[in-house]
Design a protein that fits this description.
The protein is α/β, with parallel strands linked by helices. It has helices at residues 11-23, 45-50, 107-120, 144-157, 171-175, 191-197, 214-226, 254-261, 270-274, 277-289, 316-333; strands spanning 2-5, 27-32, 37-42, 59-63, 83-85, 88-90, 96-100, 124-126, 161-164, 180-183, 204-207, 232-236, 266-268, 294-298. It starts with a strand and ends with a helix. The structure holds phosphoenolpyruvate and manganese (II) ion.
Length: 337
């Protein structure tokens, strides 16, 4: 249940609702919007629904939430969540171009890529030090040394960075370096990991599980949100379908679908969804057109030598060209890049 307070509700009115919830053994999650306060009631649904909330002073209306998630829903918060990351922002009409290598391989590879994507207009760098690989014998990433290189690149080029976290035991260490923690598709339903990243004060990018429905994805976001970390960015990265001409099928509709259901920003990954270099640019353009809040793209200076995902990496020049195109598209749509 979401209890929407009147715009002129006083502190006492809000405290009254919180107290009433406590009386029946339930918790209140308060969200102070620009115009009004909204209280999420957590606990026994049956008990909560029985009480005449709308008869209480200061309450405008009580809206039952039929979904299994609550905090990340639009009912709970009408305004878009905007997440500041260094000088960049994600959400609320600002389109965030995120780009970089899939994996950090060396200082030279990372710095060449970071310099190029920065020059082209990316506001956030991607690069992983811990890679989830299908085969245990494939390159697994440079580990903490890779994070140190990413931190140096941040200094050198003024780009905050996003990096994947695979293991709950590494959350604190990685949060000590990265500006955004990423949960990969394989871990979307790793609830221990979700709870752990919910406790840190760093934004979290939550990729959609490749077999997850939108509902399951939003519930995964709820696990992070409910721990107190409200800076969650959703990333659509393709789902597994019967289609084999692409690595995964990009669910481009997920951006407007989710934005109607949730206040969280949604970015699109045209690289991991398509798995093919020639599809990345058209899908990235679609991300802007469909109203996503950003994209995250694999860029590599020599994709044929890449240790991970070379077949889907675009060249720095291709990325620069794409950025020109999306600036034009964003202008037409009234977005800021
Ligand atoms: C990645 O972004 O490098 C990655 C591994 O993505 P996903 O979890 O979507 O496969
Ligand atoms: Mn990859």
């Amino acid at each position: 249940m979401v209890i929407v307070m009147k715009s002129d509700a006083s502190e006492e009115h809000i405290a009254g609702v919180v107290e009433r919830l406590a009386d029946i053994g339930c918790e209140a999650h308060i969200s102070n919007g620009q115009i009004r306060t909204v209280i999420g009631a957590i606990g026994d649904r049956g008990l909560i629904q029985q009480l005449p909330w709308e008869a209480m002073d200061g309450v405008d209306r009580a809206v039952p939430v039929l979904k299994t998630y609550q905090f990340v829903s639009r009912e709970f918060q009408g305004e878009d969540t905007v997440i500041p990351v260094g000088n960049a922002r994600i959400g609320g009409g600002v389109f965030a171009p995120i780009a970089g290598p899939c994996a950090v391989e060396s200082r030279e590879q990372l710095f060449r890529t970071a310099e190029a994507v920065k020059k082209a207009g990316a506001t956030i760098l991607r690069g992983d030090a811990f890679k989830p690989r299908t085969s245990p014998f494939s390159f697994q990433g440079l580990g903490e040394a890779g994070l140190q290189l990413l931190a140096e690149a941040r200094e050198e080029f003024g780009l905050p960075f996003v990096a994947e976290v695979l293991d709950p035991r590494d959350v604190e260490m990685i949060a000590g370096y990265a500006d955004i923690l990423r949960i990969g598709t394989r871990n979307m339903a790793n609830f221990a990991l979700l709870s752990e990243v919910g406790k840190v004060h760093k934004p979290v990018m939550l990729k959609r599980g490749f077999t997850a429905t939108v509902d399951e994805w939003l519930n995964a976001a709820e696990y992070i949100y409910k721990e107190g970390n409200h800076q969650v960015i959703l990333a659509e990265r393709g789902i597994r379908t019967f289609e084999t001409s692409t690595r995964n099928t990009l669910d481009i509709s997920a951006a407007p679908v989710v934005k109607a259901m949730s206040h969280l920003p949604v970015v699109i990954d045209p690289s991991h969804s398509s798995g093919r270099r020639h599809l990345v640019v058209p899908l990235a353009r679609a991300a802007v057109a469909v109203g996503a809040d950003g994209f995250i793209i694999d860029v590599h200076p020599s994709p044929h030598t890449a240790l991970v995902d070379g077949s889907q990496a675009i060249l720095p020049d291709e990325f620069a060209q794409l950025m020109k195109q999306i600036r034009g598209l964003a202008a037409v749509l009234g977005l800021t890049v």
